[in-house]
Every structure is written in structure tokens, then in C-alpha cells.
Amino acid sequence: MPIGAPDYVAFASDVAREAGAVLMRHYRSVGVEYKGSFDTVTAADRASERLVVDRIRARFPAHSIVAEEGGGFDAGDEFTWYVDPLDGTTNFAHGLERFCVSIGLWSRSGGLAGAVFDPVRDDLFAAEVGSGAYLNSRRVRVSDVSELANGLFATGFPSSIRDTNPNLHYYHEVARCTHGVRRTGSAALDLCAVAQGHFDGFWELGLKSWDVGAGLVVLTEAGGEFFALDGGTYRPGGPGVVATNGRVTAALLDLLGDVSSGRRRTPIPSPVA
Ligand code: 2AM
Ligand code: CA
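The joint structure predicted for all components is written out below.
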């Protein structure tokens, strides 16, 4: 980092940790049986977002902010912070301990820095462009799996597009051709899991910029790569994202492309005899 340049990743990491503590205070303040309460989730989400947005506004007043709960700020497209104050909301609501805070910084030309903090495990994934990806100060790298058949993949099903989401067709085909597909409920943590080599690839339709803004920087700094579903360029907020370890890319894009075009759609077995 040049002398005097802002240390974006250190800033994002500190703020993600602080916001994670806010989430845990809310999470622990009620018994598991009440975690389904919409109010608890909403309060946690909003408090976390307020903190993150306030910190960014104070430190980088000329930067834009796109945040899930609407606390954004438009200052043009030179620098944009993508803030997901609670990714894995449904997990949080049900007491399933896979959720995080996700804070990513992008410029017009691409991702600059990202921090994804899992407050349950106290795991901080952090990356700045050109400096590698870290989990709690330990360098992480993508896997070297190169065959789909040997790979473990992840995807998700955003709740807002439940009735129109064709992802079950992609899920079915990828599950048939690989070692397995997981659906964990946090896109940001799934991208970090590709970065650390637990998953070999990830795809999802309908994600928003704040779901992926930080995780994609962590992924690329760990040696991974990402594309649109059709293999073209992906920017946060695009309709579908494919993120890989860089070795299964062609095979995964081929498979997903076959599903998109209808060339490959093995019928999903009927439960009716
Ligand atoms: P969330 O927990 O912040 O809602 C699960 O497939 C992934 O989809 C999660 O990262 C989840 O983020 C995201 N997701 C769920 N509903 C969404 C929506 N309406 N818009 C964008 N992302 C969503
Ligand atoms: Ca999210």
C-alpha cells in the first residue's frame, strides 16, 4: 500500500467486527425459541447497518454506500461501499449459526477491498486488491480441484424471488455431476468458503450487490474468479453469478449454460408413482 493511502481493508475489518458484536448482542438477548421473531431480526439488521453506514460516512464522506436496509448514500460511482449488515438473515432468525456482516468497496474498475465477519466463530475474512486474502491473519487459497465430479459446490435461493427462481433446475444438474451441492443461506460466507477451498465453486441467481461485494474481493485475492452466468463479465447486482476456484470454471459454465439453453434438463424424478 502506498504511504498515506487509506487502509481500506483495515477499516472495513474493524467496522465489520464492531457490527458483528452488535448482531451478537441482539442474537443473545433472546432465547432460541424467539429467534424467529421478525422484530429481533429487523432490530439487529438496522442497528448493524446504522453503525456501518455511520462509520463509512464519517471516514469516507465522498464515497457512495449501497446498503441492504436502505441506509445508503449516493456520491457518484467513483467509490461504492456495498454493505450487508446481516447476511444469512433466515439463519439468524432460526438460531442457525451461519450469518455475517459483509462490507465491500468497489471502484468503477472493480473490487478494491472486502471484509466478511462471522461473529459466531469470530472469523474475519479480509482482502485488499493485490494483497491476498486472509482468514484471521492466515492466508487463504482456493482449492486445486479441477474436475466437477470431485468438487463440492454451493448455491442459494433468495427468498424474494422464490416463485420465479429457476435455480432448482441448475441445482439438480450440478448435484448430479459433482460430489455435492450445499445451500447454507449466506452468500457472503459461501464465497469465502470458495476462497478458503472448502467449496470449489458457487453460483446463485438474483443476489444483490451487498450480498457479494466483499466476498468476491476475498475470492479473487484467494486465487478464484467470477463471471456472469453466461460466462460474461459480472458486476455486483448482476442477474446471476458464478464464482470458482479458477479450475472448474469452464466445466461449470458449460453445465450451467446447458441448463440455461434447455440442452440439459434431466427430468426431476416425480414423487408420484
Ligand atoms: P440475506 O440473508 O441478507 O437476506 C441466500 O440464498 C442468500 O440470498 C443470502 O445471502 C441472502 O441474504 C440472500 N437473499 C435473500 N433474500 C434476498 C433478497 N431479497 N435480495 C437479495 N438477496 C437476498
Ligand atoms: Ca444478504
